[in-house]
Amino acid sequence: KEIESVCLKYGVEFQRFLSSDLMVRYPGLGWRTMHFDLIYRIAHIRNLERQVPIPLEYRIEIKSEPIPDFGRHKFSEVLSELIPNESVRKTILLTLCKSKYEGLSSHQLLIVKELLSEKPKCRIAAIVAPTASGKTLAFFLPVIVKAVERIMEGKTGISSILVYPRKALERDQLQSFLNIVDSVNQSKGSQVTIGIDDGDTKRLDEIEQGETYREMKCIECSNALLIEKKEGVTTVKCSKCSKDYSYLIASKDEIWQKKPTILITNIYTIYRRLLIPATVKMFAGIDYLIFDECHVYTDYLGGHVFHIIKLLRHAASLNESSPYFIFSSATIPNPHDFITRLTGCESDEIFYVDYKKVLEKAQSIGRRLMLYLYLLPHPDSSVETLTEALILAVTLWCHKHNLKAITFVDSVAEISTISDYIHTTILDRRQGREVTDHLYSTTNIVENSYNWFPLAPLNTTVDLDTFKRFVLKQYKASIDIHYGQLPLSQRTRVEYDFSQGLLKLLLSTSTLELGIDLSDVAVIIQHKLPITPEGVVQRVGRSGRSSTCLRVALGIIALQSSPLSTLY
């Protein structure tokens, strides 16, 4: 009756809703949502159907957070105020019309207005908001506006430097920026250039003719981008449609000489460039210095970054300019305190817009549901065994609902051990018994708290042979690994297959924790406590980011049986 009343309220056809996979029926007992059915079966999880459950205590926390009012302030209405220069405004508006963006949210508008102001209130900004709240557009729109202004005024040199803590994030962000940069360059005829300078960037003489450009894809046909060399100059082109990406600067030598309008890099490369007389001048006259996912700069690394920022201020002021420092993150509990410590500035020098307060004033705001399931195994049981069982159950559930999951493990050795055990022992030598046994054993009724029948796709459960074939082929192939030490080509292949839904679950280190666009991840499994205290929030925030996964984030935290975990 409760479900029927809700369907009636929101104009949803009752019978159609009940026949969907969103609800699991318990005859004589009622219904359970797809997420809480998974939680229920995980709380009673066991390795084999006949065995006793893995002994554990569990705790469920339910939270919600506001969803930004994306597009509330249309670009056609606000750009005249934000960009006084009519030529620049027309170029930017034409570019944005071709993009997926329609306007700015209430939170974004206040930030963009400050960053584009001719007389900004401060020279340091904190963009702190939950994952998937539009932080990137809030700083990249001013970046592209300043880049176009610089081109129109005939100025050369680097306009903005975007600093990221992970190479995978650098490449992902450049891929996401390509559409906007490409559109700007088409409309102007003159080029806003962009390049990545990090440990993977090769010198000109190290680049081979026809090699891939950082495993990136063409924005028109999704084929690989290749580097062509001719007379000491590189050009990036699509391997299939031959689309020209001449604005991408591919080699270290050319980046140092030509100084791209927008430079993507990391803190270690910046420090190296600051120590070399030939490259320190790259930082003079910069408009913006952006530190994305800046919450990682704590402890020793934070102290290192503190001194690098001092050096950057000095290098940037060589032509008497003062860049705007921007710090972006989803998990800084006290932005003013964090940034004053990181930069040495005073609290009143920081521009900060409180995300929740701004959205509370706005109307018709949706919400994202955050489900945290904490699992504490008995001291005599193994957290590795628990995590392996969680991976098997969650992957099955992801196949049923066509969703994705990530298991975060902060050790490459543990990733290899868990992945190898799942693939070679469970899904090879044992022929997937730890999965098939949960469906085809003594009982396969829904009410059975440890039976996995409701988690499996219906078309695979016709009989045991059909289900076994599914487990040993499609299911097995959908579990993979991702970490920084993998070859670039393998990491990129894994990321692409994951984005296309060919992979359903990845075991990953922190390489997938930050920034990368993962719009249809529904479940995060955290193996043991993460290294940083904000890690749980940051990682669970990777999920539930779109209507595809119903804007519901499920975080399953498998704690090791230690005094610290018990206290946590």
Walk me through the structure.
The strands form five sheets. Strands 12-8-13-7-14-15-6-16 form an eight-stranded parallel beta sheet, sandwiched between helices. A seven-stranded mixed beta sheet has the order 3-17-22-21-18-20-19, sandwiched between helices. Strands 9-10-11 form a three-stranded antiparallel beta sheet. The protein is α/β, with parallel strands linked by helices. Strand 14 (288-292), helix 12 and strand 15 form a beta-alpha-beta unit. The chain contains 21 helices and 22 strands. It starts with a helix and ends with a helix.
- Overall pLDDT, averaged? 89
Number of helices: 21
| Cross-sheet strand order for the largest sheet | 12-8-13-7-14-15-6-16
What would you call the shape?
globular
Largest sheet: 8 strands, parallel
Find the count of extended strands (DSSP E, 2+ residues): 22
Residues in helices, as a percent range: 25-40%
Structural class: alpha/beta
Name the poorly predicted regions.
none
SSE layout and pairing:
Blueprint: H1 2-9, H2 14-18, E1 23-26, E2 30-33, H3 34-43, E3 56-66, E4 73-74, H4 75-82, H5 86-97, E5 103-104, H6 106-115, E6 124-128, H7 135-152, E7 160-163, H8 167-188, E8 194-197, E9 212-217, E10 224-230, E11 233-238, E12 248-249, H9 252-258, E13 262-265, H10 267-274, H11 277-280, E14 288-292, H12 299-316, E15 324-329, H13 335-343, E16 350-352, H14 355-361, E17 367-377, H15 383-401, E18 404-408, H16 412-429, H17 433-436, H18 464-477, E19 479-482, H19 488-499, E20 505-508, E21 521-527, H20 535-540, E22 552-558, H21 563-567
Parallel strand pairs: 6-15, 6-16, 7-13, 7-14, 8-12, 8-13, 14-15, 17-22, 18-20, 18-21, 19-20, 21-22
Antiparallel strand pairs: 1-2, 3-17, 4-5, 9-10, 10-11
